[in-house]
Write a structure and sequence with these properties.
The complex is a heterodimer of chains A (325) and B (428).
Chain A lengths: L24 H15 L16 E6 L5 H12 L3 E6 L3 H4 L4 H10 L4 E6 L4 H12 L4 E7 L5 H15 L6 E5 L6 H12 L4 E5 L15 E3 L2 H4 L5 E4 L15 H8 L3 H4 L7 E3 L12 H4 L6 H26 L1
Helix pairs in contact in A: 1-6, 1-12, 2-12, 4-5, 6-7, 6-12
Chain B lengths: L1 E11 L7 E10 L2 E6 L10 E4 L4 E4 L1 E3 L15 H10 L2 E6 L10 H14 L3 E4 L1 E2 L12 H7 L4 E2 L8 H14 L2 E4 L4 H4 L4 E2 L2 H6 L3 E2 L2 H17 L2 E4 L5 H13 L3 E6 L26 H13 L4 E3 L27 H11 L4 H7 L2 H7 L14 E11 L18 E11 L2 E5 L1
Parallel strand pairs in B: 1-4, 1-5, 6-7, 7-8, 9-10, 10-11, 11-14, 12-13, 14-15, 15-16
Antiparallel strand pairs in B: 1-2, 2-3, 5-17, 17-18, 18-19
Helix pairs in contact in B: 2-3, 4-7, 7-8, 8-9, 10-11
The chains are: A alpha/beta (325), B alpha/beta (428).
């Protein structure tokens, strides 16, 4: 049964960040504006602000990640929080401890913010629901749950697009590759449609596009040359190694032939189109090296903006946390 | 013991015409209905009188699928707790699937289950034996021995047979003895790893999907093998519009096939999953609104013979995990009647049709004489107040399984008395 949006407080402030879906447009804009103030922190000699001093941020990674965990860690440290990194992997579940038991234990260690990555779609929602019951002043930030959502990635992508393109209202945006398994794609799509982007296209083979994907407000293309036509933004997705050959795709090479971003294909987009990728990149699978390193690529600025966006989100859930308490 | 149930509105759809729906008295003598009407049989002296004024007197419910969890899963539920739940839900006959631990693939286990059930003195238990040894889908279970021990059919539970040649041989063998095979139509490959209906909700939530073709491919295979082997098949838990249509055609063709649907699938859809609510994880998955509507139409026109509870009690920990790790299914014995009534209201059909699908029509699938309120029939009776509301809570549910999407919701239709084989097994 659908209940109130679990990531918002009754007065529509950010309580947890679980997905970009259902976030009010004003709240997304608020996050991006707050992030803008944090971008310059990285340029200072003292790269710290005291917003979360005395707070404990627990990086709770049930799935391997170096990049995302590191950017969250940097973001938390720049906000002066104490950061505890926990790589739980599958070992704790094989010891028989359930997810909620793990959370209860960490709550007992006085966590203030959980940054959670888990292989199951909906894991962050489950944790948020549980936290609401047992310790309502703890916040949950979803750092990727299964195929479902990776909202800070979606928001940093919005930040990047807004940085280069200023507004969303006249943009055509193509998201290319493995949509089916991509939480980055889902978070991007919901954020883009909320922000008023009129033309969101997803491009990929039928095996990697979910059924009824159009219902998310996108158009579906299988021919990349046509799908990329006139785009302002090209968002490439990472293709997981285990999907490169098997029943979904015959080979990485064949995928690259149809859906890898090459100079020839990019030429069909607008001349000032930007190229994005959430990383880590498979050069020669999703994207040609010359494009990845080329003048249209904004892949490294994405990483920099990612820290600012994560600082913004952490400070907002941290502050609204303070108000609750 | 002689019972007289008076002043109630008797509904019985077993007759050849429209059946009975009138105020009448029911006279029970021992385990049999002695008479129905206004006149007591000669010399009838009631030991007990039940006043059913304002209530409906219906046949005891026949549930085509209730997991009792014994042997092996006593932490989820016990025979005792679930048979009490059955009585509280007005269920007097229930079919239990073989997916226990150990699996019901040995006559000794079946006899033990029947004996345990017998001593508890509640609903009648009709076990389904495993179709294949250990439900592994490799070698046939001893069907003849199991039938002699009391199995009314053979079921592969929720573990579809991967090897079609085993299915073919199982059907041939069952047809030799005229046994009915129960199958949940699901192609093992198309359903592999899936947890939700293949549609916009799975797309949005990023849940691995099960296409409706998993069901239709399986039904097409089963029907083809039925034509070749002459086996009689009961298709359990239909979930899709395509599946209903294939069964409709199979019946038109004259194949000896029957079918049922879980009551939740008549009311809920994948939209109800909301924010990953694991109480809405079912197997087969809840599908789209158009699938639900097709299932509903299938029950109305009789393509789907019966509605069952698909009772699946679990402990709370099994639902308090991410959606994809949650055990599918819901506790349902006590919800079968009120949900069937709710469905009748939504589908704008007479209450008596809904009652028939959970009584006489279900009994017909089993080839049993229950589900009728006529002289000489087994005295299995469910008396309920159709206007009474009750709240579904952990406390009001008798079943040990508190896992239901309807927790903290109100139900209309409350069982007040359950009589099984002439014994008053439940009184509110």
């Amino acid at each position: 049964m659908l209940t109130a949006n679990p990531q918002l407080t009754p007065d529509k402030k950010l309580r947890h960040l679980l997905t970009t879906e259902g976030l009010p447009k004003s709240l997304i804009e608020n996050i991006l504006d707050t992030a803008a103030q944090f971008v310059s922190v990285g340029d200072r000699d003292v790269k710290k602000v005291p917003l979360l001093r005395g707070k404990s941020v627990f990086n709770l990674f049930f799935e391997n990640s170096t990049r995302t965990r590191t950017t969250f860690e940097i973001a938390a440290k720049r906000l002066s929080a104490d950061v505890i990194n926990l790589n739980i992997n599958a070992s704790s579940t094989s010891k028989g401890e359930s997810l909620v038991d793990t959370i209860d234990n960490l709550i007992a260690m006085d966590a203030d913010v959980f940054v959670v990555r888990h292989s199951q779609s909906g894991a962050a929602h489950l944790i948020a629901k549980h936290v609401n019951q047992v310790r309502p002043n703890v916040a949950v930030i979803n750092a990727g749950d299964g195929r479902h959502a990776h909202p800070t990635q979606g928001l940093l992508d919005m930040y990047t697009i807004r940085h280069y393109k200023k507004s969303f209202h006249n943009l055509s945006i193509a998201i290319v590759g493995d949509i089916l398994h991509s939480r980055v794609a889902r978070s991007g799509i919901h954020a883009l449609t909320t922000l008023g982007c009129p033309d969101v296209r997803v491009i990929g083979p039928k095996t990697l596009i979910p059924t009824e994907c159009e219902r998310m407000g996108v158009s579906v293309h299988h021919d990349m040359m046509r799908g990329i036509e006139g785009c302002d933004v090209v968002m490439m997705l990472r293709l997981q190694n285990e999907r490169m050959e098997g029943p979904l795709l015959p080979s990485a090479q064949e995928f690259f032939k149809s859906y890898g971003l090459t100079a020839e294909k990019l030429a069909r987009a607008k001349p000032d189109a930007i190229v994005m990728h959430p990383g880590p990149m498979n050069r020669g699978v999703e994207i040609e090296s010359t494009i990845a390193d080329g003048r249209q690529a904004v892949i490294l600025p994405q990483v920099t903006f990612g820290i600012a966006v994560r600082m913004a989100v952490m400070s907002m859930v941290g502050v609204s946390r303070g108000e609750v308490a | 013991m002689r019972l007289e149930i008076r002043n109630g509105r008797l509904i019985d759809l077993s007759g050849s015409n429209d059946g009975r729906d009138e105020r009448a008295t029911l006279y029970v003598d021992g385990a049999i209905i002695a008479a129905v009407g206004s006149r007591a049989p000669d010399g009838f002296m009631a030991d007990k009188i039940v006043d059913a004024a304002g209530k409906i007197v219906a046949p005891g419910l026949v549930d085509l699928c209730a997991r009792l969890r014994e042997p092996g899963y006593e932490h989820k539920a016990t025979l005792e707790s679930e048979l009490m739940a059955a009585s509280a839900g007005g269920v007097t006959s229930l079919v239990c699937p073989p997916d226990t631990e150990p699996v019901l693939d040995e006559p000794g286990l079946v006899e033990m289950l029947k004996r345990r059930g017998w001593t508890l003195n509640q609903a009648r238990i009709y076990p389904l034996g495993a179709l294949t040894a250990g439900l592994k889908g490799e070698t046939l279970a001893e069907m003849l021995e199991l039938a002699e021990a009391g199995c009314i059919g053979f079921f592969q539970a929720d573990r579809p047979i991967v090897d079609t040649s085993v299915l073919y041989r199982a059907m041939q063998y069952a047809a030799t003895y005229g046994f009915t095979i129960w199958l949940r139509p699901e192609d093992a490959f198309l359903a592999r790893g899936g947890i939700a209906h293949d549609g916009e909700v799975a797309a949005r939530l990023g849940l691995a999907a099960i296409p409706t073709s998993a069901e239709s491919v399986a039904i097409a295979t089963i029907c083809t093998l039925m034509r070749e082997t002459g086996a009689r098949v009961h298709l359990a838990r239909l979930s899709s519009a395509a599946g209903v249509e294939l069964v409709r055609r199979a019946k038109a063709e004259g194949l000896p096939v029957t079918a049922d649907v879980g009551v939740h699938h008549l009311l809920l859809t994948d939209r109800d999953i909301g924010y990953f609510d694991s109480q809405y994880r079912f197997s087969p998955p809840l599908r789209s609104p158009s699938d639900r509507d097709a299932l509903s139409a299938g029950v109305v026109d009789g393509t789907i013979n019966a509605i069952c509870s698909d009772h699946t009690p679990t402990d709370e920990d099994e639902k308090n995990v991410p959606f994809g790790e949650a055990t599918p299914g819901a506790s349902g014995l006590e919800m079968l009647l009120p949900l069937a009534l709710k469905w009748a209201e939504h589908a704008s059909i007479p209450m008596s049709t809904a009652l028939a699908r959970i009584t006489v029509n279900a009994a017909q699938v089993l080839g049993k004489s229950q589900g009728r309120l006529v002289a000489g029939a087994p005295a299995d009776v469910c008396i309920f107040d159709p206007r009474a509301f009750w709240a579904v809570t952990r406390e009001t549910l008798v079943s040990q399984g508190k896992n239901t999407p309807y927790l903290a919701r109100e139900m209309q239709g409350k069982v007040t008395h359950t009589i099984c084989a002439g014994r008053l097994v439940y009184a509110a």
